[in-house]
Design a protein that fits this description.
By secondary structure, the protein is an alpha+beta fold. It has 3 domains: 113 residues, Alpha-Beta Plaits; 102 residues, Chitinase A, domain 3 (Roll); 178 residues, Trigger factor, domain 2 (Orthogonal Bundle), CATH 1.10.3120. The strands form 4 sheets. Strands 7, 8, 9, 10 and 11 form a 5-stranded antiparallel sheet that branches. A 4-stranded antiparallel sheet has the order 1-2-4-3. Helix 12 crosses helix 14.
Length: 474
């Protein structure tokens, strides 16, 4: 097989493949024999059927058509890998002049878009900020305060205290459906209720704000139009729900003083000093787990900012599809619906779509930036490294899997993933890393919500990606 690659004026890539006559002749001979074995021809033993008989029964072009289709399906993906091309659009075949013929080379061409080779504005080491690896006094203070808050008590506030948007209250509540029948699961006496948590719709919470002890309110809500944990379970049983509520008391949170006695009684720690030491150890263990990922994410983001040029929409669409597939697979495994997830996160379907699109764009930009870094620094992937990726993938038959991917023209995906992994390692090795007390707020706001997927490997064929995560709301 011979190949030729040229870039057309339109920007598309044209791949021309020539299969030599000797290969065509062998395939035609084999196909005639296969047909003679596969089909029954009266008067002839399987595998010993003359060509004219096969042509007479199946049509004179049956074998040539079969071989033509096989050569197109087999040769094209092999040529893609041989030429190290990464198509990002469907191929349009051309220059296919009829069926293969004995004694003649078979030539065909295909046109498609390939992954662009964008450049970076700067190839110097990236500057990356990460949190201090050790626990600061402020971080310890925050965690100790959170522990004390967990053990808080609730006491009644002054009777004149008004309900606020984040108040905790004792509430007497009665719920009825559109037929006037009580909904027992929502009705309660002196129920502890915290506003702003999404248990009931925001419109109900708004009706409570400003009330004092002993004051009441009645709210009728359309279940199909309201959000909230309680509303989601009522949409199929009633069109409206009426909530009659009376504030029994406004509560105030009383956080205990952190003393040696409290630490020993509640936490089994002999002193506040020992508690702080334990908290510091826990913080540093947590940082040890997350800092490598923060370093990787921030380095990718800094690299992404240097990318010059527009990324193809088709690549963003593909990345978006991959994100959604991974996300929905995870939801399904957890038995969670999309509606429930959106309610839990407090985001709308439109915001969710926007977030996924943004993450997809980040993923593509970061991958193309890694490609640029690899080209500039002469990073390459050998055939042995590609084969090793299959051997270490955990597949039961790695050799068979490698052969299947090669036949399907998919080895470039594995090679691309390995290349990006090596590029990222090089970026991190040379990065200027600075430890800071707190990452800058601007960086926190602009940073991608999710680690970009740098490396696709043969493992993906066997199981879902290891770190598949739900697209994050930003």
């Amino acid at each position: 097989m011979k190949t030729n690659v040229e870039v057309l004026e339109s920007g598309a890539t044209k791949l021309t493949v020539t299969i030599e006559a000797a290969d065509i002749d062998r395939r035609i001979k084999k196909t005639y024999k296969d047909f003679g074995t596969k089909y029954k021809f009266p008067g002839f033993r399987p595998g010993h059927v003359p060509r004219p008989v096969i042509d007479s029964h199946l049509g004179k072009d049956a074998v040539r058509q079969q071989v033509t289709e096989e050569m197109l399906n087999e040769a094209f993906p092999l040529a893609i890998d041989e030429c190290d091309l990464s198509p990002i659009s469907q191929a349009k075949f051309s220059d296919v002049d009829g069926f293969v013929e004995e004694g003649k080379d078979f030539v065909f061409s295909a046109e498609f878009e390939v992954k662009p080779e964008l450049e970076l504005s700067d190839y110097s080491p990236v500057h990356v900020e990460i949190p201090f690896k050790t626990a600061s006094e402020a971080e310890i203070d925050e965690q100790v305060a959170a522990l004390a808050d967990y053990y808080h008590d609730l006491k009644n506030a002054n009777a004149n205290t008004k309900v606020k948007s984040d108040s905790i209250i004792d509430i007497n509540i009665s719920a009825t459906d559109d037929k006037g029948e009580e909904i027992a699961m929502l009705s309660a006496e002196e129920r502890i209720y915290e506003l702003g948590r999404g248990i009931f719709p925001a419109s109900f919470d708004e009706a409570l704000v400003g009330l004092k002890k002993g004051e009441s309110v009645s709210v009728t809500l359309k279940t199909a139009e309201e959000s909230g944990m309680m509303m989601s379970v009522l949409k199929d049983r009633t069109e409206t729900v009426t909530l009659d509520a009376t504030v029994a008391a406004v509560k105030k949170k009383v956080v205990p003083e952190v003393t040696d006695e409290w630490a020993k009684e509640k936490l089994g720690v002999e002193s506040v000093e020992k508690l702080r030491e334990q908290v510091a150890t826990t913080i540093e263990q947590q940082k040890g787990d997350v800092i490598p990922r923060i370093l990787e994410n921030n380095a990718l983001y800094e690299l992404q900012k240097r990318l010059e040029g527009e990324v193809p929409a088709s690549m963003v669409d593909e990345a978006e599809g991959d994100l959604l597939q991974s996300f929905f697979t995870q939801l399904q495994s957890q038995g969670v619906t999309l509606d429930a997830y959106l309610q839990q996160q407090g985001i709308t379907p439109d915001k969710f779509k926007e977030d996924v699109k943004h993450q997809a764009e980040d993923t593509v930009k970061q991958n193309l930036a890694l490609d640029a870094w690899a080209r500039k620094n002469g990073i390459v992937v050998t055939d042995e490294e590609v084969e090793d990726e299959f051997k270490t993938s955990g597949a039961k038959e790695p050799e068979k899997m490698y052969a299947e991917w090669k036949a399907q023209g998919r080895l470039h995906i594995v090679r691309e993933g390995i290349l990006r992994g090596k590029a990222l390692e090089a970026v991190l090795r040379d990065a200027e890393v600075v430890e800071v007390e707190k990452l800058s707020s601007a960086e926190e706001e602009e940073k991608p919500a999710k680690k970009t997927s740098k490396k696709k490997s043969a493992k993906k064929e066997e199981a879902p990606a290891e770190d598949a995560e739900a697209p994050a709301a930003e």
